[in-house]
Amino acid sequence: MAAEQDIEFTPLQGMPATPFRIGGDDLSCALVVCGAEKDYPLIYVNEAFLACVGYSRTEFFEKTGGYYAAVIHPEDRERARAIVDEAAPEGRAFSAEYRVMKKDGGAVWLREAGRALLAGDGCLITVSVCRDLGREVALRERLKQRGRQLQDLMDALPCGICRVTADDSLSIIYANNYFYSMLNYTPGKAAERHLHSVEAFIHPRDMKMVRSTIRENIAQGRTFFELEHRFFDSAGKVLWALIRCRLDPEEPGYLTCVLFDITSRKRMEEDLRLSEEKSRIAFRHTGKVMAVYDPVGHILFQSEEDAAVLGVPPAMPGVPESFVTNGIVAEESVESFLRFYHSMQRGIPSGETNVKLKIADHFEWFSGRYTLIFDTEGNPRRSIISYENVTEQREKELAYQKWIQFFKTQQENSIGYYEFNLTKNIYEGNERRNSGSLPEDVKSFSETMEYIFSHYIYEEDLPAYQSIFDREKLLGKFYSGQREIHFEHRRFNADGSLYWASAGIQLVPDPLTNDVKAFILIKDIDAQKKKDLELRCLLELDALTGLLNRATVVERVTEMLRRSASGMEHALIMLDLDNFKLLNDSRGHQFGDEVLKSVADSLRDVLRRHDLCGRLGGDEFVVFLPHIPAGRELEKRLEALRGATAKDYGGGLSITGSLGLARFPLDGANFDELYRKADLALYEAKRRGRDRFVIYHPDLEE
């Protein structure tokens, strides 16, 4: 800000003196005062402006001849004039972006924000503040380039992408180059033949199915669905495509589709079509067990002998969920087991897994593979599954020495190193240094973990640490194929201070005993972790107020809404400062910035620990109150927020707050819906006289 007292200025050479005073050379931003006449006769420019263009005051006058228009880039001059000339006679504020020529022959982009005023001698003048837009303009150009690159990327993707009308005509709004190349066309060739609808490419026998599927999914409100059907290319050749469709709720009249050529897959499926009986005979010669799965009816069929091993009936219904609920699948294998069967239900042609299943009173490991058999319409009808007991095989992997050597070399950079036999629950070694030391009487993995839990691990990280360092779960991860685990956590130093550490776990089978070994390495990552956390904080917070920035608010509110359980109620509040622009214009932007910081501090003081508060930009804030039902408590919160914004700065300048509120789930299920309705309520609060809150109701839509 300029000094509060006015500073008498000397006009540029040849310019008439005017009976007013300007305090400008203390301003950090560029200030320009001109006559509101043709070519804008210069009255005053401050040192910040002269520094921006690289001229001395005398040089600048000589170069421009005393007219500001002379320094504006010729390509931008008329556009800038039009903006100023339209606003100046009416005394309105104006804003223009243009380039000015520098002394070195270059140009700098400026944003001029000004207003026409009447000087003491009755002359109309313009007073403007100019800001360097160089970085912003460069950023815009980069964004344009990114847009062009995105378009190029769309055209280069190895899949067809198109946007069509969601009706029976299926008219093409947009299609990338690959879409046409899949069908042996170019965009120009398709246009010449007037092929403006997807119907022109779809096999006639599939058209009825395509239309009915689209209608059904739209009627049921599905935003994502898939189709598989045939196309004709330009030469009349038939190809199969998988089409993944998205219906945008904001634009329900259009479908965005991604097409994948699956002709080769269809041919392979036809080649793999075998009778179930022939498959059984083939599997008997391999020593594996065969089962048949119905992905539509969710029934698993196997022989009575094989079913008895798992303790299930020969025709097991409700698979895979029934296996899980009956306790046949070990906890660490549930996810893999479900994913294996859900892949069949989704029509993925083949897959494999390793899972731990209960045999009598204990669990053993099984390796399974499947291949789907499709009907003539391309729908999955049966899955042929082969599986075998691989418990011994999985315990004989021979990577032991490799990882032993690797971890030996890593010990020098660690603060703790441990070796365990997980299978036998035995502690086998440790570099006894720093926080990695253990008492002599600790002999097992379980005892080691109990000691570490109680002596070194920060309480907030303890539940996650205990879950990861659970012996049974680690063994389960090993047999599921996960051999390497990393976990960041906080630990206590000897003096009680906290630091960040990384725990690296490597699970390796012993080649001689088949026992599972665990090598654990603890490293101090405190310095780097703190840098990472500081960087994350900078990326998530508004630089001026320290509140969350727009992107972070949207992300966190969206995540909280997504995780909300049934019956939870939340509130999204839009908050706007009344009279802030007047105060900002009267006292200056730096004072306005201090006001925004003060309001942010006041809002923090009245918010609860888990409430979210962010600045969307300017004097617009957003507040998210989780777990708060409608009623008196909510209204008290709104009053507290409104009161936190009320500030009197003297001289007739004060601000208050207007608030608009929308409720979850009553008024919307996502951020965009709640934001729109809270904004409507905010507008109504402004309309009613400001300094109040309004809760959204449907009448506001009218």
From TrEMBL:
Residues 568-698 form the GGDEF domain. Transmembrane segments: none annotated. SMART domains: GGDEF, PAC, PAS. Residues 94-145 form the PAC domain. PROSITE patterns: GGDEF (PS50887), PAC (PS50113), PAS (PS50112). InterPro entries: Biofilm_reg_signaling, GGDEF_dom, Nucleotide_cyclase, PAC, PAS, PAS-assoc_C, PAS-like_dom_sf, PAS_fold_3. Residues 42-91, 146-221 form the PAS domain. PANTHER family: BIOFILM ARCHITECTURE MAINTENANCE PROTEIN MBAA, DIGUANYLATE CYCLASE DGCP. This is Diguanylate cyclase. It comes from Desulfovibrio porci.
